[in-house]
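tool_call predict_complex ligand=threonylcarbamoyladenylate
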Amino acid sequence: MHTHIINPSIENEMKLAAQIIKEGGTVVMPTETVYGLAADALNENAVEKIFKAKGRPSDNPLIIHVANFKDIYPLVKNIGEKAKLLAEKFWPGPLTMIFEKSDLVPSITSGGLDTVALRIPKDKHARELINKSGKVLAAPSANISGSPSPTRFEHVYGDLFSKVDAIIKGEPCKVGLESTVINMVGDVPKILRPGAVTAEEIASLLGEVEIDESIISGLSLDEEALSPGMKYKHYSPNTKIIVSHLAKDDYIKMLNSMDGKKVGALCFDEDVNLLNIKSVSFGDEYDPKTQAEYLFSSLHKIDKLALETVYARAPKLTGVGLAVYNRLIRAAGFHCEFPKVNVLGLTGQTGSGKSSIARILGDLGAAVIDCDKVTRLPDIYPKECLKQLQKTFSYDIINEAGELDRKKLSSYAFSSKENTEKLNLIVLPYIVAKIASIIEEYKINGKKLIVLDAPTLFEAGADSVCDKILVAKAPKELRLNRIIKRDNLSKGEALKRINSQKEEAWITALADFIIDTENVEEVRAKAEYVFDKLCHYRK
Ligand code: TXA
Ligand code: MG
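tool_result ok
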């Protein structure tokens, strides 16, 4: 098949491109997002050529590109107020909205759905092609299905030369990622594909917006949970890509210790000079717009390195970063590597300032488990445990409703040291098991550090589930004053409580980190230091 290469600055060549569209042919056009493979959206034969050239599954619907807002009316059943707001703010631009389709839109264009996706592009050559041809244009990204979307003429040329009637040779695409796709059917609009128009921008305009779960579901590593729309492999170079969530220093260290003949890096500009293996940068770490602009070009470059595996650094998941990450995990076939999640045991004598440290760690993003609360959970003791307690102490610790009477149990169990030991022997394994299951749940839910706030961490044996131990300490006089104030105690009561606990030296001997809380101003910086040491996720 002959492919015309069109120079868009020559009027007659653009006329030829428009003529090809009018006659039901296919033309690759630049847009601000990625290059698109365009044909008359209302001509079934023309649309069929798009599917054929791309090797695209026929149930994957196309986006129709129009030049002006009024042109969407004949294509849809209705346009709500929210869509009008979005159009006013973001069109022309990198946003695609989905509406119920009118009968004018052929089923082949909408992939058999009764909805249709619409976009008004900003790129002047795309607009010129629409205007000169007088048609509305179906245009998916101009790549072979499954490979990275083209953001430069060379990419299109490699994939589609001799498979289409014409290619308009435009500039590299400025946005670099495909448009944000948002479903406007239903009450609350839902983002199906993130792009340069961000969820935050849409939410601030509309008040609310949903984000489809599949957008970052690579995080769960659970491929079964992916939505059907995500069933196709996307954007993939031949080299295996693994997306790493490691913090920068850990990432650099890991890669520099690997075999540079086999392993490379897909990283940020700032990382290149720190690495002594081959690397391709996909933008500035702190500027996700540059990442969007260069990601696909970088994916195209990767295969030229002739490596087995490339480790990509995960971008931040906010703003445009979400769109970058969404494409990256698809390029990696959802292969992500997460750092080990550490469990930090936090303990100390009463009044040592443990809770304020727990609060700071929580603010920094750690999940904090309050062990005292765990012991009071209604389902903490299973039946066999309750039976054992009855046998050991008394049958009336279970009331008529079949519930544990905690007051009664305490009255028996704390009546002597011996009884307290008996109680601990029975209940502690269940408490520690419960804590372990809460820890697992936090890990599954993507928490990056887990803190176990436990006054009697060692005595309960809960240190067995911890990777590191942090001990809070403070001078005795200060602890005394703190608990007198906090718990409204007399000095005598407070002293008795303090003296019944393990000695400070006994606890600190078992610590990996110690924070002295006497100087309040320093506590935050010290807690941040511990957080940074133990949380190996990217910041
Ligand atoms: O930036 C872009 O959107 C580029 C340029 C060329 O405009 N186009 C593009 O098209 O990325 P394509 O076909 O590669 O991606 C369109 C996405 C697909 O994931 C498709 O499943 C989805 O939009 N889509 C299209 N119509 C839909 C509909 N009615 N319901 C749900 N998803 C739809
Ligand atoms: Mg595509």
